[in-house]
Task: structure prediction
Amino acid sequence: MTKSICLIIAIVGMTAMTANTHAAQEWHALVRPSGSVRLTLGGSEVATVEPGLFESGWRGGSLDPSGQAAPLAGTVRGALRAPGGGTVACELHADASEGRLRLAYRLTPQTAMNLNSLHVSVNVPMRHVAGRAVAADGQAVPVPADFAGQVHLRSKPMSVRIGPQMDAATPWAAGRALEVAFQLQAPEAIELEFDEPVTVHAGEEWVPLRVELDVEPGSALDFSALLERERPAGSLGWLMARPDGQLAFERAPERPRRFCGVNLCFSAHYIRHDQADRLAERLMRLGYNTVRFHHYEGELVDRSAGTTTTFQPDRLDQLDYLFAALKERGIYVTTDLFVSRPVLAREIWPGAEGDARDFKMLVPVNESAFENWKAFAANLLTHVNPYTGTSYAADPALAWLSMINEGNMANYIGGVEGRTAEDWRSAWNGYLAERYGTREALREAWGDDPGGDPSQGTVPLHRNAYEDTPRSRDLVAFLAEMERRMFARMKQFVRDELGCRALLTNMNGWSNTVQSQAARADFDYVDDHFYVDHPQFIERSWRLPSRIGNVSPVSEGIPGGRGNAFVRLMDKPFTISEFNYAAPARYRGVGGILTGALAALQDWGVLWRFAYSHSRDNLFEPRPVGYFDLASDPLNQAAERAALCLFLRGDMRAAPHSVAIVMTSEELLSQSRRRIGLTPPWNGLAGVTRVGTFLADAAGQVPADIVLPLGWGRDPGAYGAGALDADPYAPETGPAVLEAMRARGWLEGNRTDLARNCLHSETGELLVDAPRDVMVLDTPRTAGCFAPEGQTVQAGPVTVTVQQTGATVWVSSVDDQPITESSRLIITHLTDLQNEGARFGEKERCTLLSWGGLPYLVRAGSATAQIRVRDAGRARVYALTTGGRRAAPVDAEVRDGLLVVPLDVRGPEGARMIYEVEMP
Result:
């Protein structure tokens, strides 16, 4: 028996691009061996198509990335893997003509399966359809503009699932095929191509790279003198949070400070003393002034006595020495008091077996768990480091502390079970009883029966923190209140009982609602996380195969960090303790510039890249590229120098003006009108001016030039003339804010167009032209671009022509002078870097099947940099090793008074990414 569905979808959202951009570009459909399809316009992704399933309980299946090696008569065959072990055979026949892409799927379960859904999904990036319409079978379906809010892990698509209504209680019979046939209709012809797996090998396209991990002292890449460095760290006393949201030292409060560093994870903390000195020296010469100790507990704790709150002496000694080595070199440290410590269940419930996997969610509601958290924190912070002679609690080199890593309660409330769920239900009922008192009052507030009596503790725990209903609005307010109470207890313990003056925070990822700002108002500083091209695991977590979008982040308009900007409270320092443009993404080389520029423009306080290393094994000898580690990713390490120059050294100016969404705790906790995410749909303004939120609980002026009142309780007129009468979470508010900025004369000549995702900073130093996939950076000391092949871009004193392979190219002065006056420059030219033998499921390299191994291979490419320098005729140019040594001279020329430097990945000594220019 076969069930068939037919549909025609007109791609109208994508054709809303400007006419001149659209007319010059071609539509292309790439059919992958697995049976998924990628549709692009001028190389930019506009839609993907993929078969999928959900088993009983809405457990999602995965598409086998391998599929058939070559198509037969326009047909590919693959398979869907169900969580329960079942398989669905997938057959796709594809053809295209006259602007129509015809796709016919046949999905056949090999065994009887209980399914909530068997379907084919059409996924369209929100930037193409938000606020527009998608036509299906002749009917226009509007897509709300406010669906386009920022997601920090990956880009957010709109998905249309095509499939029948299904009931998981009724098995779908083995051999019963579902046929789904439809057309994607575009205004012009669509070129159809069948994809195939690819393996990266050295040759014409890829050039081997010799790598050096340590930085040559005094070389152009020795960034140890990039900024004034107090040695040892803590020499100017404790770090403090200024009322204007800046960080400063207590003995120099008039001078704002910034920090830039990396994470160390797992065994990377536990190395010999001589290795710790070598690592600390390297991190200093790379330019860092802070390190985050992360995932450090597993190897540190001693579980032999049946607890996880005491430490193994040898591991503690290694951690102590590493801390002291960093401190000696002016490098400050942060950590979390709970990350991934393997707490035993019997530490919470006597006699229980196994691990307390819900520990993050137990601490707010279970007193035994809270005491366990305190015991670990006390043992760590009161320990006297023999190499510094000071306890961690008393050492200003430990400058920041997060209470629980990524502990945002909305992340986990939907999945709590057993005794943890019972504790949460009790707390939930206590909150409802305090707020509403009776079942009748609660019924009136919710508009339906609550299912129990809060005064009797019988209301079921509501678990959905994402829908906009009275229940969910109460839930997110409840979670914010629970966070406030928990943090108040933690702060009292750490600050008052242990005497630790480190700055304290919490809630650093991922679920952020407006209500969460009521809790953050009590923190010393605000912290958050983001990733671009974070891996999505197809079959098992943290196991290959994995998938990424592998789309240029420039074409997406700074996807990393612009949503986080609204998590920031304007009167508190803001930090990002985890971020990355992860491997094996093709475009990760632009991540350093985009992150450093955004952080500088927003005037944030700290950036910590995740990570430098997850293991001691890759710290002192090269290892193959992995998802996150800079120690084994020379391209991302090179990209990091842009962030160091732009943000840490301050090459890019902070935006002189600001826009803030203003709210009160009363509005958030007692007067909630909507359940909404914290990031507004017009978050692209983070690439233009400073943005954030502010809690106006106390009297006084709002620290922002343009104020957007939340308006749930307080009269917007209370905020004075700077307030705009507009809903801060309406999509049309972004253009209104932009118009207000133009009316005040802040944006003369500015090219920002939010509808096109063209973002131009009000300083004029950063332009991200997403439709053209071009980024231009123009500051006195750092200038350059990202551009596709064939583009020429002028960035102040630097003009870049990208001849072969799209690339990120920039010039930075080494000696703190403007590029035009500097006696020493570095030029960086980044294409792509992979391992030898890396294997992908398709040409676009979105599905990683095998990492491969050494050597590193750099994508062949060439460009030319024309630079206006003070004495071009005397300039000498050298290709550098990754450690900063001069590998070979480079023949440059002078043309019309400009220094013209040829940049070519392929050099006699191997791959080149970095160059030095010296004016004797």
User: Anything to note?
Assistant: Confidence is low (pLDDT under 50) at residues 12-23, 145-155.
